[in-house]
Amino acid sequence: MRRTLRFAPSALALLLAFAAPVARAADSAEAEKAVAAAESDPSKAAAAKTAVAAAIEADPKAVLPRLLEARVLAVEAKGKKTAQRAAAYALVFDALAKATELDPWDPAPFKLKADVMTSMGTPDNAAYAEALRACAIRSPGDASAREAYMRQTGKVPVIVAGDAMPKVTWKDAEGKDVTAASLYAKGPVVIELYRSAVWCPFCMKQLIVLHDNVDKLAKEGLSIVACSPDTVETIAKIAKDGLKDKKPYRVPLLSDTEGKTADKLGVLNPESVKPDAPKDAFGLPFPTTIIVDGKGIIRFVKSHGDHRDRVKPEEMIAVAKKIRAAEAAATK
């Protein structure tokens, strides 16, 4: 007598939830094998495209299938006649752009873009450098990615508007880690990098301005934090005693000891990390204002070589209005 297996609805849902990722992984694995085969033998490109299309259909939100799509399109582009090659490579870069839309933090699409440009033989130098920069910014702490950009340009990779806010951390007044993601989790945030609340009068002036404008910024949907190399003990004292006559001081302060996070963002003042730099002035950032939207995308960044210059609240509010306008347009 044949028995039919029957699952309770909840058990069936659990089974399907488990099976779907396994199936998606299998599709991507098969596609990856097919693409590798096509890279060795371009006559297999058509089969690879079919496998990649299946992987994309199985998991439309995954980055890997889009990277595989770009790789097989690059195989096809290499085989094109000179007159057709530019259009073929444009398709490669379109696939990589789709991958970045799916995960703005993933450095892989930019690394692959740089590799494809190298294989082209005569890459656009500016576009190539930008791919290296974008890869390095999305790989904070990856020395090889940073060095690749520096070899190409002689410069340190720096964040720009449009980047995903790098996955960096600071310390709060209790010595706990504060991630960048936690700062924009509830909406747009101003991240103000300053030199010191102890000895820099220009920083103190800006910190007081920010304190006095907390409510005005909040009405525009902006929260705010301020970060410096001041120690956890220093910012804890300010949290307890206030700053000058501002008690309680209303802007959360974060510590970036030795400027390690500022360095990952590309805004560390190199003069402040020389061996003879004073201990309390080691690892200083260039005064910098970063505004990140609620999705984690940098919408504004401005650094000042002259430490007397700072971004005013009015400019921050103007950015907040643009963010709101863009969000409203996106929902229409």
Structural notes for this entry:
By secondary structure, the chain is of the alpha/beta class. The protein is built from 13 helices and seven strands. It folds into two domains: 24-153, Tetratricopeptide repeat domain (Serine Threonine Protein Phosphatase 5, Tetratricopeptide repeat, Alpha Horseshoe), CATH 1.25.40.10; 169-331, 3-Layer(aba) Sandwich (Glutaredoxin). It has helices at 9-40, 45-58, 63-78, 82-102, 108-120, 125-137, 143-153, 180-184, 201-212, 214-219, 232-241, 260-265, 313-331; strands spanning 169-171, 177-179, 189-193, 223-228, 253-255, 288-292, 298-303. The strands form two sheets. Strands 5-4-3-6-7 form a five-stranded mixed β-sheet. A two-stranded antiparallel ribbon has the order 1-2.
Protein topology:
Elements: H1 9-40, H2 45-58, H3 63-78, H4 82-102, H5 108-120, H6 125-137, H7 143-153, E1 169-171, E2 177-179, H8 180-184, E3 189-193, H9 201-212, H10 214-219, E4 223-228, H11 232-241, E5 253-255, H12 260-265, E6 288-292, E7 298-303, H13 313-331
Parallel strand pairs: 3-4, 4-5
Antiparallel strand pairs: 1-2, 3-6, 6-7
Helix pairs in contact: 1-2, 1-3, 2-3, 3-4, 3-5, 4-5, 5-6, 6-7
List key phrases describing it.
7 strands; Serine Threonine Protein Phosphatase 5, Tetratricopeptide repeat; 9% strand; alpha/beta; single chain; disordered N terminus; 332 residues; five-stranded mixed sheet; Glutaredoxin; 13 helices; 54% helix
User: How would a crystallographer describe the biggest sheet?
Assistant: 5 strands, mixed
Helix content: 40-55%
Beta strand count: 7
* Proportion of strand residues: 5-15%
What is the 3D shape?
Answer: elongated
Note poorly predicted spans: 1-8, 11-20
CATH topology of the largest domain: Glutaredoxin
Q: Distance between the terminal alpha carbons, to the nearest Å?
A: 59 Å
> Based on helices, strands and strand pairing, what is the structural class?
alpha/beta
Assign the CATH superfamily of the largest domain: Glutaredoxin
CATH class of the largest domain: Alpha Beta
Please compute the radius of gyration using only Cα atoms.
25 Å
**Domain module count:** 2
**SSE pattern, N- to C-terminal:** HHHHHHHEEHEHHEHEHEEH
CATH architecture label of the largest domain: 3-Layer(aba) Sandwich
**Sheet with the most strands: spatial strand order:** 5-4-3-6-7
